[in-house]
Write a structure and sequence with these properties.
heterodimer, A: 0% strand, B: 72% helix
């Protein structure tokens, strides 16, 4: 590697070093961005599938919704 | 009578070469159906700008004006095209299997290796800005290539764009050879179960907003591309802007595509294009596509070391942005290895992940180099 570097002009050497820097920083950054997006997507999918199964965020069955005034629709009796 | 042959006398051999290149691009577009929407206008534009005394160039020339306003001033054309592309993409297959995101990221590997190679063999010919612009050919994404090369002020913009679009059209020929060289028959036969998981509408609406936020906060230079891509997708998924979504997918995308090719041709003037650097860019572009494919496939193999549900390594190759060619290649090779092995949905998921990843990498490179 050192022999290869010795054969290069100063401009090439500087370009190669810069490209190596772009490579490691770029690869790390793309995996961080993509990784975060993948994790958030996984969480969103998980929440929506729990919601579809009638469970809350912690996986427990959701309490039946109550009507503000007269209780739930099932409990109400028509006059 | 001299005035009649004035133009003829002014023709240089380099301009004749450009006419031949223009004719070749038109031939490939019509006869071989290689990216006709782009290669045909570029080919015709190459002829148009290489006629001596052509008034499409110069201060009041229409092609020059289109270039200055549509690309040079704000990169408006490639960015606006991303709204149309975003409106066309269904991220459903990717959202139903988020693991595929990683393959899209891995398939950008060729970009970085090519930047290194361009810096190495360019031996002072290619500046780091040129090398980065050449590397982005590996994004397999025309608008991203235009944006990066233009933002980094590379003088090889036209060559980079022509090479990027040409290799995108050649994906069905390039990828199978590479994939077969680096996978075994047994690996190509790996079946992947596809669970028809329905992604909720809320997830589909939140996804473009979240991607914009995450990409913007970590790689702000990618916002122009990622933001407009996601804006187009939000219009598609919101469910209340059907006519706008339709306009973005069809009218906007067609109009921009129509003008983009002929505008790019501004850079195809003989003195800039007929150089040995163009040949080097063609070689480096091919290298980028090959190493993108290798990166995706190898990363899928790497994930298989830890995963119970094995990924068919070929799916990694679909992580390049060329949509839908890369997905079709994987599906075809899967069926070739095992007639019951349907990989299309996984490949499509990886392919759209590659589209997001390539836009992000484009922004990252601008941020790291500029």
């Amino acid at each position: 590697m050192n022999h290869v570097m010795l054969l290069m002009t100063e401009a090439t050497k500087s370009n190669v070093l810069k490209s190596l820097e772009i490579m490691w920083k770029g690869i790390v950054a793309i995996f961080i961005v993509i990784g975060i997006i993948a994790v958030i997507t996984f969480i969103m999918n998980d929440i929506s599938s729990r919601k579809a199964q009638g469970k809350n965020f912690f996986g427990k069955p959701r309490a039946p919704e109550k009507s503000e005034e007269n209780g739930s629709a099932e409990e109400r009796t028509e006059p | 009578m001299d005035y009649l042959i004035e133009g003829l006398n002014a023709v240089t051999w380099q301009q004749v070469v450009m006419w031949v290149i223009g004719a070749l691009l038109i031939f490939l577009a019509i006869k071989k159906k290689m990216e006709p929407a782009l290669l045909l206008p570029i080919g015709f534009g190459a002829i148009l700008v290489n006629i001596p005394g052509s008034n499409v160039l110069g201060e009041n020339g229409i092609v020059q004006w289109l270039f200055e306003v549509g690309i040079e001033a704000s990169e408006a054309m490639p960015i606006l095209l991303f709204i149309g592309i975003g409106a066309m993409i269904d991220f459903g297959p990717l959202l139903s299997n988020p693991k595929l995101f990683l393959l899209g990221g891995a398939a950008q590997f060729g970009i970085f290796v090519t930047i290194l190679l361009a810096a190495l063999i360019g031996n002072g010919v290619f500046s780091i800005e040129d090398a980065a612009s050449i590397g982005i050919i590996g994004a397999a994404d025309g608008p991203t290539s235009i944006l990066v090369a233009q933002t980094l002020n590379s003088k090889y913009l036209a060559a980079i764009v022509v090479v990027a679009y040409s290799y995108m059209a050649l994906v069905p020929f390039i990828q199978p050879i590479v994939i077969k060289l680096i996978t075994t028959k047994n690996e190509r036969c790996i079946r992947m179960n596809y669970t028809n998981y329905t992604v909720s509408k809320t997830t589909k609406i939140l996804f473009p907003i979240i991607v914009t936020l995450v990409a913007g906060l970590i790689a702000p230079a990618s916002l122009a591309l990622v933001g407009f891509l996601m804006f187009g997708n939000l219009i598609r998924e919101c469910g209340v802007l059907d006519s706008l979504s339709d306009a973005a997918q069809n009218m906007l995308a067609n109009l921009i595509t129509l003008l983009l090719g002929i505008t790019i041709a501004f850079q195809m003037q003989a003195e800039y294009f007929v150089t040995y650097q163009t040949l080097m860019i063609m070689g480096l572009g091919l290298f980028a596509f090959i190493f993108d494919t290798i990166g995706g496939v190898m990363f899928a193999k790497f994930l298989n070391l830890f995963s119970k549900n094995k990924i068919n390594p070929m799916v990694g190759a679909a992580g390049i942005s060329a949509f839908p060619m890369a997905s079709r290649v994987v599906q075809k090779l899967g069926l070739e290895a095992d007639p019951g092995n349907h990989l299309l949905m996984h490949a499509v998921g990886t392919n759209v992940s590659g589209q997001i990843a390539s836009a992000i990498v484009g922004g990252l490179i601008i941020g790291l180099v500029a």
